[in-house]
Amino acid sequence: MLSEISRIVSQLEKTPYNFDPSSSNTTHALEALSNYTEGFYENLPHASAYQAEGYEQSEEDDFMTLSETSDLPSIINFIKTRLDPPGLNPASGGHLGYIPGGGLFEGAIGDYLAAVSNQYAGVFYASPGAVRLENNLIDWAGKLIGYDDGFTGNLTSGGSMANLIAISTARNHCQITSQKIVRSVIYTTQQTHHSLLKAIKITGLEECVFHQIAIDERFCMIPAALEKAILTDIEKGLLPFLIISNAGSTDVGAVDPLSTISEISNKYGLWHHVDAAYGGFFMLTEAGKRTLNGIALADSVILDPHKGLFLPYGSGIVLVKEGNRLKNTFSQEANYMQDTVGDNFETSPADLSPELSRHFRGLRMWIPLKMHGIDKFASSLEEKLLLAQYFHIKIQELGFITGPTPDLSVVLFRYEPSEGDVNLFNQHIIKDVHMHCPIFISSTTIDGKFWLRAAILSVRTHLKEVNTLIDFLAETLLKNTKN
Ligand SMILES: *Cc1c(COP(=O)(O)O)cnc(C)c1O
Fold first, then answer.
1. CA dihedral (16, 17, 20, 26) positive or negative
2. Which atom of ligand 1 is least distant from the CA of 276?
3. At a CB cut-off of 8 Å and minimum separation 6, what does 257 contact?
4. β-strands 95-96, 300-303: how paired?
5. Cα separation values, 454 from 96, 252, 408, 477, Å
């Protein structure tokens, strides 16, 4: 029996034994990666931010099937010619749609190194270095928004996961048990990001009472309306539970009056969650600090380094002011984890999030910050704020109606021709931009009005890109108002 097993095993191991590359194969692979990378960055300034062709399935896509193996150069060629071109180019400085970020090369280096060593970043016992490094980053981010000692947090895959963790923590801490759900009240505004509504659904809070609080002309929550709603709800015997506010809404970049909302939240014993996925890293700038004043009073805050720190997609942060509340929500014991030690040194990410086995995602954030230095990020974010002011003024000069002066770096604008359907007119403009302009913008509808929006946050968006968009819009306007 035993000798039979040994015989078969020695046969089997011959075939798959060579998973690991020889050193010359490693060199070749890295050369191929290096060629791809150089070509990508060389082409970036010339590539359009959006390509409308290539959405339909083609014969080239047969390469995706796993029926035949292939070598790395062919695989990279497929990525370059078929996967990269269609749709948005998120790395492009011409990406001014949704909320861009760009993606820094050093972030890719971080992912690469993390995958080579495959550090087990979920548990301190397994990888004390990785966990300590991530906890340092969380410490930095918490202090950046102004939290005092006692907070904790987690590096997530993005803002949606970070919001989900925050909402779970709020629910757990406030003990919204099944009997209480239908009487518990959540306060949002029309500007609340849909990932929060998703988080509410996932955490079983969909049956709560929802109050969408009125907003002012700058799309910011009106605190007096919030307090009035809370008082009315208390009178009705309901249980006000959670306030969700924006520190830079995705739609228009609105920043709610965070201090006042926190005061109200504390007065009535609610949980105040601030979604700073887009706006949070503007805390690196003086203007941003003024705009986001009071953010540190919130019970939980989320940030998206793959937006404001220009990292490649896959990086969010959740921060909870009273760190033990996060830990109480997510820590869980298991018999087979009995050997883990060292929790007295550092808290493990596995005790602060739904994940166990986990990518060492701290490296993709740490390497760019460590190599470029914080000041460079601050200057770049300041540049984005000023570019938004510049665009807001220039676009008015062209005759566009604009939304409020941007608090951060999202500018709303639309053209209102003297006759004809205004929404339709603006839909034509955006179509024209998508088909013919190297710069990409997106649109939104607010109270039935179709707005164009430019979100300036890509690390590669500079004056040149903004001027290209302005020149294109001027031409389009001329063309469309003539007909
Ligand atoms: C982008 C964004 C989110 C969602 O974050 P993802 O990283 O896309 O999951 C949530 N809230 C705001 C305000 C955002 O801008």
1. negative
2. 13
3. 220, 221, 223, 294
4. unpaired
5. 5, 9, 12, 17
What atom of ligand 1 comes closest to residue 313's alpha carbon?
Answer: 7
Cβ contact 341:125 at 8 Å:
yes
In whole angstroms, what is the distance from residue 422 CA to residue 397 CA? 19
The backbone torsions φ and ψ at residue 59, rounded to the nearest 5 degrees and listed phi first, read -60, -35
Residue 85: which pLDDT band, with cuts at 50, 70 and 90? very high
Q: How far is the CA of 283 from the centre of ligand 1 (A)?
A: 17
End-to-end CA, the chain: 87
Q: Residue 50 corresponds to which tokens in the numbers above?
A: 């959006």
Give residue 161 CA to ligand 1 midpoint distance, Å.
9
* Nearest-angstrom CA–CA distance, 346 and 303: 22
Amino acid, single-letter form, for residue 435: M
| Residue 402: strand, helix, or coil | strand
* Tokens coding 172: 């757990």
How far, in Å, from the CA of 277 to the mean position of ligand 1?
A: 5
Q: Which 3 state secondary structure label does DSSP give 289? A: helix
Q: Tell me which residue has tokens 């796993």.
A: 66
State if pTM tops 0.85.
yes
Tokens 């001014």: give the residue.
96
Query: What number is the average pLDDT over the span 314-333?
Result: 96
The span from the CA of 125 to the CA of 342, in Å, is: 6
Residues with CB under 6 A from ligand 1: 99, 158-160, 193, 195, 249-250, 275, 277-278, 304, 316
172-208: per-residue pLDDT in tens?
999 999 999 999 999 999 999 999 999 999 999 999 9
- Type of residue at 205: L
Rounded distance, CA 159 to CA 147, Å? Answer: 19
Distance 196 CA to ligand 1 centre (A): 9
Q: Does residue 293 come out as left (phi exceeding 0), alpha (psi in the -120 to 50 range) or beta? A: beta
pLDDT-derived band at 336 (thresholds 50, 70, 90) equals confident
Cβ neighbors of 168 (< 8 A, separation 6 or more) are 199, 203, 329, 330
- The model's pLDDT over 346-396, given as tens digits with 9 standing for 90+, comes to 999 999 999 999 999 999 999 999 999 999 999 999 999 999 999 999 999
pLDDT attached to residue 111: 98
Among 166, 164, 161, 199, residue whose Cα is nearest residue 361: 161
Nearest residue to 205 via CA among 174, 233, 178, 243: 178
Q: What is the pLDDT of residues 397-449, one digit of tens each?
A: 999 999 999 999 999 999 999 999 999 999 999 999 999 999 999 999 999 99
